[in-house]
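Hey, I'm writing a tutorial for new members on how sequence and structure tokens pair up, and I'd like a real worked example in the thread rather than a made-up one. If someone can provide the structure for the chain below, I'll link this post from the tutorial.
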Amino acid sequence: MKNLIAILFFMLAGSSFAQNSIKKVPLIPMKDFFKNPEKRSFTISPNGDYLAFLKPYKNRMNIYVRKIGNDKITRVTNSTERDIPWYFWKGNNRLIYINDSKGDENFRLYGVDKDGKNAKDLTPFEKVRVGIVDDLEENPNEMLIQMNKRNPKIFDVYRINVNTGKMKKIAENPGNITGWQTDHDGKLRIALTTDGVNTSILYRENEKDDFKKVMTTNFKETLSPLFFTFDNKYIYASSNIGRDKAAIVKYDLANNKELEVIFKHPEVDVSGLMYSKKRKKITGVSYTTWKREYKIFDEETKKIYNDLENKLKGYEIAVTRKNKNEDKLLVRTYSDKSLGAYYLYNVPTKELTKLVDISPWLNEKYMAEQKPITYKSRDGLTIHGYLTLPVGVEPKNLPVVVHPHGGPWFRDTWGFNPEVQFLANRGYAVLQMNFRGSTGYGRKFWEISFKQWGKTMQDDISDGVEWLIKKGIANPKKIGIYGGSYGGYATLAGLTFTPNLYACGVDYVGVSNLFTFLKTIPPYWKPYLDMLHEMVGDPKKDSLLLYEASPVFHVDNIKAPLFIAQGKNDPRVNKDESDQMVKALKAKGIDVPYMVKDNEGHGFHNEENRFDFYGAMEKFFAKYLSGRTEKKKTN
């Protein structure tokens, strides 16, 4: 995303063509990329009569409801502090949602009727995090949740009345359970445990029995239960046991035996299994190569997808929700150039009704193509990634923003990314890469990242930059780096460990000190601490490794300008991570721009804060990479 001070030679020579050509594409206002969408997150009531969706109210995303066939909409929530991040229908009359306070991720559970009445905070507890175990679809009044109310490190299971908030604890965590799972009847049948490194699956035939340990594996080898077979006898799972790439399998937990491989892919992990609850049938799988793909098993489902693809040519599609009878589907389109639209599809009549364009103010013809790429790392590893080039510009000698993803055990995928499109519109080529450790490429590719923060993981990023330079796409004097979370760490590592490679950097809620990062993780991450020590490094056994990989101890190497942004209430990457970096730079005599938002956590979710951050980023990159920027309007 950034580069150093513009050098006259490049402004007059290589970059002059780019700056002139980009004028063919209008400068799209920054706010158009980052403002709240028109409507999003559509769901349908179980009876298929009502739609719910999120829509802005006082600059915050709130839940609205409308009856299908009626244009009148009713706002049912009044959240003005934070966007509502997630919600669902509980029966045909009530909606359940979660929200936190100022980004602390201590989510509470709320309920409200579809007419906006009977609103209730169902878990009014301070510093307690709620999660959903089972919504108990067939029970209109109750659901199963998990909370760390008794002990902040672990989660017990409660049966809660969604109207009154009355609850009863039905399973107490002995201290090592990290996940719970029910069968199709809502019975608690599976528990996942960890001792920090080894993972076990506990199983029982019914709720009267005690849980018994079925299997134990090192965390590198996993059997991840997805859901039970429809007779509740076996499970479907994603498993990499005995294989490098995770496959979808049918598994007999009672006898600890793999029964059948449902689907596997030679290049990537497979973890998405689709099914029809009504017809009690698995219907297909989804997986991600360079983009999301489907393999449909079921003829009825295949006909639906074929019809949708024929009607929505030019876009990828995803069926996001369905009613209980499965005759009404919510469909979303997407692409690399569009946030897409929502549609309602009537299965019997094949009628497709558009509900909304998510961001109608963004014109696709001005958006850039996100192209899949591969390159070789210095040790011969194939690295997959994406390159987005500004529209209307010859791909030569361009300013570049390198944009490593967070996680780091995550991956970038193909699709609309407002940050990437924003930067491309400003005239930057944007490079994203799935460096070693990125998920989805198998166990070996993941494991070779262990204890490699700032080392081979960072080399994969640097090698991508060198690849762009060798191809003549990148102006070697105007390469910047920007990322959030682990991507923020990679930004700091890039500026400290390869100071001659980058002209500037933007660190967004990034880790600067691996010692303090491992000390300040949320309490509910503590069961995984030994695993983190094996993956990142042990502060005692690997103190030299962590010191060498912590950018805060190497600020003397930094040559390029740096901009840092942080949420005050971040529970994952504590604000102290950014404070330390700023303090160290100031001690060196460098006044680093530092943006802190008091009502945010791990990333800026409130619209006005996004505007502040990306507006400041735009100016920062324009200063050091000579990209385009909006001019202040004068009265």
